[in-house]
Design brief:
Two copies of one chain form a homodimer.
Chain A: H1 6-21, H2 25-28, H3 35-44, E1 48-51, E2 56-58, E3 66-72, E4 75-80, E5 86-92, E6 97-98, E7 111-114, E8 118-124, H4 125-134, H5 136-162, H6 165-182, E9 189-191, H7 196-203, H8 207-219, E10 223-226, E11 229-232, H9 235-241, H10 246-250, H11 252-255
Antiparallel strand pairs in A: 1-8, 2-7, 3-6, 3-8, 4-5, 4-7, 9-11, 10-11
The structure holds a DNA duplex (30 and 30 nucleotides).
Chain lengths: ~260, ~260
Amino acid sequence: MPASGKAETVSLAKIKIACKQCALRELCLPLGLDESDMKELDNMLKRRRTLKKRDYLYRIGDSLHALYAVKAGSLKTVGLMEDGRVQVVGFHLPSELLGLDAISSDKYTCDAVALEETELCEIPYQALEETAREIPGLQRQLLRIMSRAIVQEEHQLMLLGKMTAEERLAVYLLNLSKRQERLDLPADTIRLSMSRQDIADYLGLALETVSRLFSRFQDDGLISVSGRQIELTDMLKMRQILGQCESIKTGKKCAE
Amino acid sequence: MPASGKAETVSLAKIKIACKQCALRELCLPLGLDESDMKELDNMLKRRRTLKKRDYLYRIGDSLHALYAVKAGSLKTVGLMEDGRVQVVGFHLPSELLGLDAISSDKYTCDAVALEETELCEIPYQALEETAREIPGLQRQLLRIMSRAIVQEEHQLMLLGKMTAEERLAVYLLNLSKRQERLDLPADTIRLSMSRQDIADYLGLALETVSRLFSRFQDDGLISVSGRQIELTDMLKMRQILGQCESIKTGKKCAE
DNA sequence: CGATTTCTTGAATGTAATCAACACTGGTGG
DNA sequence: CCACCAGTGTTGATTACATTCAAGAAATCG
């Protein structure tokens, strides 16, 4: 283990804070990087991007230039079928990474669309790959992040393949709650940045079904709905909808 | 570009053949490796494993020791819900890799079960990660493989979220056909190693629905069914079920 | 060969989709 | 500031697709 002088510690603390602000803690914060590593990373992450609501970050078939980390706002990634059917593949909140699907073929396989005013960090992929070679911890972290994406999607497969409409929405809300908590936001107040249609396209339901479920949950005292503002008024009862399977369904087990 | 003497070429050819037999071409064949790299890889891949039908390769919660490449036979990976519901997350044929989900948390998140007599190569993960540091091409390939898994699961999300039962089975059969082709097996003859129940649990359907669809496809002249032996007698008509979306649905677009 | 598992087929049911009408929201310009 | 309008969300009625329940046939295994 290398000795750590005071200068290094300070610098490290500084850059970690920067990284936290930049919402990239997913990628680099957990690492034990030395100062020069940090510089390299920092150089890579200079570029910013801002999107307005409905702007595309990238489209299906675009060449992979970069991965993106959400700094503020939110996006959806959407898979399309030529006959117009769409599947929302993911929602991306601050601190989360987009674009991993493009690594295999050098093309993005989904459209990525901002759901609101959104800020991102651009991570040029070529540079990231090269840097990962030099910084073992970064390589490791990158692999972990990709693996986590796989696990997350496996949960979604289970949701789409085996769960009722009611369960799907309960999972969805609890999952959003959990992700907010990680950002040090209140767990029981959710401001949805996506439409009912988006939620439906994510959960494999019709938008009317989603709307009805919001109403039913409200009638049952689980939530309080005011447009896109949701209060989780009875988390316990909400979890009971999921029976004993919370851990799998909300992603608790594999989220960390 | 380094000069390549005769000795190196021969050795490289030899190991590539070994790798092909070992069904690991996914991982190392596309790389430009030099001789010492090859040795290192080869050392890593020494261990073999053989499973009988219904044997578990690993279970949910087991610690990640290794990734596995299927050499012969087939497996399913299964996600479980405590109340007994199951979702088959994937089927794994020769040349395909299992265990990527475990990298994020050091635990496998699915059960992996052999569907028949199955042979595998064990790839100790720790060693793989370290080797990937030293061989840039390997790191790159590993990232690509993981990205491809993500893309594949995204297709499955679309299938489960947006496709009819009929379309799901058509996609499934065409996908199997394509994977067989890649192994230099006939594209129009499929011997299913999985039960109707497994297929149903993969496609998010009831087993009766799957059974009925096989019958209907046969009545419509698309396939000829004899238990688990399927002949694709009219691929064209089968593709027409999918409308214009073949490329997405059969994985053609992103498989390579 | 018998016994168990797997598969097929039929009938009834149910969950969520679709179709349809209306209400609310939020942004824009008069 | 209000009215308007497009987009978004709610609710009801009907329909449809796939599930469930049930029974029997076929295949597989010991």
